Amino acid sequence: MVKKGRRKAPFLIVWRKLVESFILGYNLPMSNYKFFDHTADIGVEISGRTKKELFANASNAMFDILIESNDNKSTSAEKTQKRQRTVTVDGKDPEDLMINFLRELLYWFNGTGWIVSHCKIMECGNKRLKAKLMGEPYNKKKHSIKTEIKAVTYSGLNVEQQKSGWRARVIFDV
Questions:
Q1: pTM value?
Q2: Which of 27, 72, 92, 97 has the most crowded Cβ, counting Cβ within 10 A?
């Protein structure tokens, strides 16, 4: 007889990691973004010194929510599978551009099983973005899905320039 366990809510998993990091006194490798409370979804506040850095950090945040990579289990042949892709995204303003960019990356993951491991923004205006993405195909031996993201939402979306750089708030429907 197989005993079925309850799946923990994504918010509880994220909350547990944040509490553990505080109690144990170590910093999570998320210095460019942090989670905020949001009912039934995952909210992320992302920062960057420049707008290019903000968008790259948004990509990192989304894939950190999605994927747990077991890089130490991969062979050298698997490590060389990383490939480069270029994406150009348009939007009517910086907020729309952020949503369209993250939705494009989410489509690549859900539609083709492609995981972005590094993002370099080549051009970033208020209405168009061009990014060079390094990534690899999803491999169940090397990757595990932490949280399924259904969509990137406009709810609570904010992208703004501040004195210290750029900041965005994005909510992912999980």
A1: 0.77
A2: 97
* Distance from C-alpha of 36 to C-alpha of 146, rounded to nearest angstrom: 18
Q: What confidence tens digit (pLDDT) does each residue in 85-139 have?
A: 999 999 999 999 999 999 999 999 999 999 999 999 999 999 999 999 999 999 9
The parent domain of residue 164 ranges over 32-70+84-173
19 domain-assigned: no
Contact in structure between 82 and 117 (CB atoms under 8 Å): yes
Residue 123 DSSP SS3: strand
Of residues 165 and 41, more confidently modeled: 165
- Nearest 5°: phi and psi at 26? -115, 155
Query: For position 90, which CATH number holds?
Result: 3.55.10.10
H runs (alpha helix) in 26-160 = 51-66, 76-79, 94-112
Q: Is residue 55 part of a domain?
A: yes
**Exposure class string for 73-112: b at 16+ Cβ within 10 A, else e:** ebeeeeeeeeeeeebebebeebbbbbbbbbebbbebbeee
Task: Give, as one character, the DSSP assignment of residue 77.
Answer: H
Structurally, how many domains does the chain consist of? 1
Question: Kindly report the CA angle at 133 between 74 and 145, in degrees rounded to 5?
Answer: 50
In this structure, what token pair is assigned to residue 117?
A: 């491991």
Rounded distance between C-alpha atoms, residue 154 and residue 96, angstroms: 8
